[in-house]
Amino acid sequence: MAQAIDLFTAASTEGAWTVGEVTRRARAVIEAGLPPLWIRGEIAGFKAWRSGHWYFSLRDKSAQIRCVMFAKQNYMLPVPVDGMQVFVFARPSVYEEKGDFQLTIMELLSTDKDGLWKLAFEKAKASLMKDGLLDPARKRRLPPFPRRIAVVTSPDGAVLRDIQSVVGRRWPVAELIVVPAQVQGAKAEASVCSALNRIRRLPVDVLIVGRGGGSIEDLWAFNSERVARAIAAMPMPVISAIGHETDVTLCDLVADFRAPTPSAAAEAATPDRTEVLTHCGVLGQRLVRGLRLASRHVVERLNRTGDRLTRSMDHRLEKSRALLTAHSARLDALSPLRVLGRGYAVARDADGNVLKRVAQLPSGKEFRLRVTDGEVDGRVQ
Amino acid sequence: MAEFSKQLERLEAIVRKLEGEDLDLDEALKLFEEGVERLRVAREQLAQAELKVKKVLEIESSGSPADQ
């Protein structure tokens, strides 16, 4: 029985390589010969895995290369679509487990200026618009005298300092509720959403969402549709102050008021206490003047009433006087003195009783006789 | 400060009424007294000298802000 040739032994280290050895070697050769470089191509077969890693091919008319872009490189990027022309900065290598020649992508740019961002922005904007979240009629009026102002921003940035100083100067009556959030980096989206969620339950009159200027990548969290929807759903009016005035983010579009800077946001959120105090002073003066005016009305009315009273009294007096004259004329006509004047006389006894009958005048009775110009004594014969 | 807003609105309404309407002295006095009181409360509400700043911490989840 012939002894089987042990090919593995025969093909010793010099004769045959293992798969692992070849792929390792290939990888070393490729990585040494092709250092990271910029490559231009078209995206095909794009797939984002749950892990956040992206897999796709980069191709042109004649060839294609498998590509991977890990989550830690792509987290700030909008998702590209198949057919998009891109530049990538990538490290060519061999994925040993599969023996695939592939590119590990470190950066990905659309060939259009901001193409990727613009695409993602427009897509999200269209979606927000479809749900009516960009409707100008949705914009709420900012409260004129806020008691509690919430701020979502980086806890130790210039944004918070600016807002605090403006609110402290203009409206120290308020309470500033700071909810710190990561405004940049992989966790920014989740962090801002969780901050918003916490504020939702607080009795807050107005909310400022702030972020200093930065590149479009830095502002990424504020272009996230998720954050924009969270802002649109806040129960209180929201002021956005994100990036520079020229960078309009989705959050700016859904906010009730867009401020160009954090300081401007703080000014928009607050009245000026000095002005409010002046207004109070004016109201106080008007109050006093109002009362004076009201009492003047009353005094004038009283005067008018008094005049009428006097006038009516005068009238009545006049009438009484006329009546009195008439009565005295009649009285005069009836006066017994007038009868005496016509030649009659009245006889009275010592007690003043009028003696009208013969029986009252027995012989010897003394009486007084009243004639028109005086009295005389007499006796019955 | 919803209360402040209401306070000021009522105050403005009182002033307008005092200025504009032919009122009984009694009614005018009542309005004046209410106005003075509301003005006093409003001024009191404006008196807080320093901004209060509170930080809501990450662990906070009960719904009321905690002092830092």
Notes on the protein architecture:
The complex is a heterodimer of chains A (381) and B (68). With 381 residues, chain A is an alpha/beta fold. Chain A has 4 domains: 19-111, Nucleic acid-binding proteins (OB fold (Dihydrolipoamide Acetyltransferase, E2P)); 135-271, Rossmann fold (3-Layer(aba) Sandwich); 274-333; 336-379, no CATH class. Helix content of chain A is 40%, strand content 23%. Chain A contains 11 helices and 13 strands. Chain A has helices at 7-10, 19-33, 71-74, 115-130, 158-170, 188-200, 225-232, 250-254, 262-269, 273-334, 336-341, and strands at 37-48, 54-59, 64-69, 85-95, 100-110, 148-153, 175-180, 206-211, 238-242, 257-258, 346-348, 366-371, 374-379. In chain A, strand 9 (238-242), helix 8 and strand 10 (257-258) form a beta-alpha-beta unit. Chain B has one domain. In chain B, helix 1 (2-20) packs antiparallel against helix 2 (25-45). The longest helix of chain B is centred in the middle third of the chain and has 21 residues, at 25-45. Chain A binds chain B through residues 143-147, 155, 164, 167-168, 171-180, 198-199, 201-202, 205, 273, 276-277, 279-280, 283-284, 286-291, 293-295, 297-298, and chain B through 1-2, 4-5, 8, 11-12, 14-15, 17-19, 22-25, 28-29, 31-32, 35-36, 39, 42-43, 45-46, 48-56, 58, 60-61, 63-65.
